[in-house]
Amino acid sequence: QVQLVESGGGLVQAGGSLRLSCAASGRSISAYAMGWFRQAPGKEREFVAGISWSGNRISYAESVKGRFTMSRDNVKNTVYLQMTSLKPEDTAIYYCAARPAIGRSYIALSAYEYDYWGQGTQVTVSS
């Protein structure tokens, strides 16, 4: 079992930045593909970013490309999401997710592919 705990959310003005962290426990995530998803009120959960276990491959949703950066530290058992140039439409609950990697460069893009989820952290961007 992998337990995931997100932190770093909050209220920020448009154009601002936040850094989300996802701390894992229970098992090393070094062999897990990791992802960030978000869910706004009344909307479905959507993919934000995903990273392979090795960190050699990262994928982003078109809506966040160039503004968000995902990274991982397998020694600290933590993944991060650096968010810059935030927009009101980025307002959502952000979730961290994990699943055993299939290969070195494997990234899971769909929520149903993930086995473990955190409780989420709220990000609110004011205009």
Task: Describe it.
Strand 7 and strand 8 form a beta hairpin. The mean pLDDT is 96. With 127 residues, the chain is mainly beta. Helices cover 0% and strands 50% of the residues. The chain is globular, with a radius of gyration of 13 Å. The strands form two sheets. Strands 2, 4, 5, 6, 9, 10 and 11 form a seven-stranded mixed β-sheet that branches. It is built from no helices and eleven strands.
Count of individual helical segments:
0
Report how far apart the termini are.
Answer: 40 Å
The major beta sheet can be summarized as: 7 strands, mixed
Q: Outline, from the CA principal axes?
A: globular
Order of helices and strands: EEEEEEEEEEE
Residues in β-strands, percent: over 45%
In round numbers, the mean pLDDT is 96
Helix coverage percent of residues?
under 10%
Short summary:
The chain is an all-beta fold. It is built from no helices and eleven strands.
Top keywords for this entry?
7-stranded mixed β-sheet, 4-stranded antiparallel β-sheet, mainly beta, 11 strands, 127 residues, globular, 0% helix
Task: Spell out the blueprint of helices and strands.
Elements: E1 3-7, E2 10-13, E3 18-25, E4 32-39, E5 46-51, E6 58-60, E7 68-73, E8 78-83, E9 92-100, E10 116-117, E11 121-126
Parallel strand pairs: 2-11
Antiparallel strand pairs: 1-3, 3-8, 4-5, 4-9, 5-6, 7-8, 9-10, 9-11
